[in-house]
Design brief:
Elements: E1 5-8, E2 17-22, H1 27-40, E3 45-52, H2 66-83, E4 90-96, H3 107-123, E5 127-131, H4 138-154, E6 159-163, H5 167-170, E7 182-188, H6 193-201, H7 204-207, H8 222-228, E8 232-238
Parallel strand pairs: 1-7, 2-3, 2-5, 3-4, 5-6
Antiparallel strand pairs: 7-8
Helix pairs in contact: 1-6, 2-6, 3-4
The protein binds zinc ion.
Length: about 240
């Protein structure tokens, strides 16, 4: 059964304060860059929550330590935000360990969740863009869970739109939205594609041979970038 879907223009989004949750630096551009760039032109406010440190992408590199890679990825994230037109947006780097986020209820998870609860109180978002709850990457699922728990703890109920990065390539049947779970929302982001691609390219540690001494390293493929930087951007709007 085909899930329900809507096609919208970004101008139909009325939210004024938008929290963007990125499990890794680059997800904000690949997943949400079109909508961010479009709404930035309309003067909307943004805060970006980068959940993990992104430090696991090149574990075999001898020349790049984890701390150096973490710093590089934060520079790339800030560059990407500038290219999306939100250079002055607030940002929080939680720096949880990439591919090894703390389990729910652990001391580290409680501390991270408390920071998000405080952020929700300070920024008061009326829209949260976050990863699809069953996107097939552990950090994406754990980031959804962390933010979902923080929203519940704070008793805040902004609109949510969930974006999938890996679902189409790697998802199993059970990872996809179930009947009655969510409505697909497709935004026309043609006017923002150039900015979105430029922002994606700001993540040079993930898209180029900047770190060349790790043959096992992660690299975003051209086909993945092409798939995620087209004229429309897809989200899932959860049903109550
Ligand atoms: Zn990611």
């Amino acid at each position: 059964m085909t899930p329900p879907s809507l096609s919208l223009h970004p101008k139909s989004v009325t939210a004024e304060r938008i929290l963007v949750v990125a499990p890794h630096p680059d997800d904000e551009s690949l997943g949400c860059g079109g909508l961010v760039a479009s709404l930035a032109c309309l003067g909307r406010q943004f805060h970006f929550l980068f959940v993990t440190d992104g430090g696991a992408s090149h574990p075999g590199s001898a020349s790049w330590t984890r701390s150096a890679l973490r710093a590089q990825r934060e520079i790339e994230a800030s560059d990407a935000l500038s290219r999306l037109g939100v250079h002055d947006a607030g940002r929080t780097f939680l720096r949880l360990p990439d591919a090894a986020m703390p389990s729910s209820g652990s001391e580290a998870e409680v501390a991270a969740r408390t920071r998000i609860v405080d952020l929700l109180a300070d920024f008061d978002p009326d829209l949260v863009l976050l990863p699809w709850r069953r996107d097939p990457h552990c950090d994406h699922r754990d980031s959804w869970l962390l933010v979902d728990r923080a929203l519940r703890q704070a008793d805040r109920h902004p609109r949510r739109l969930e974006y999938a990065i890996w679902l189409d390539e790697l998802g199993a049947d059970g990872d996809h939205p179930r009947v009655g779970e969510a409505v697909q929302v497709s935004f026309d982001v043609r006017s923002a594609v150039v900015a979105k691609r430029a922002a994606t390219e700001a993540h040079i540690s993930q898209t180029t041979a900047l770190i060349a001494d790790d043959p096992t390293a992660f690299r975003l493929t051209t086909s993945t970038i092409e798939r995620l930087t087209g004229p429309s951007e897809i989200y899932w709007s959860p049903l109550p």
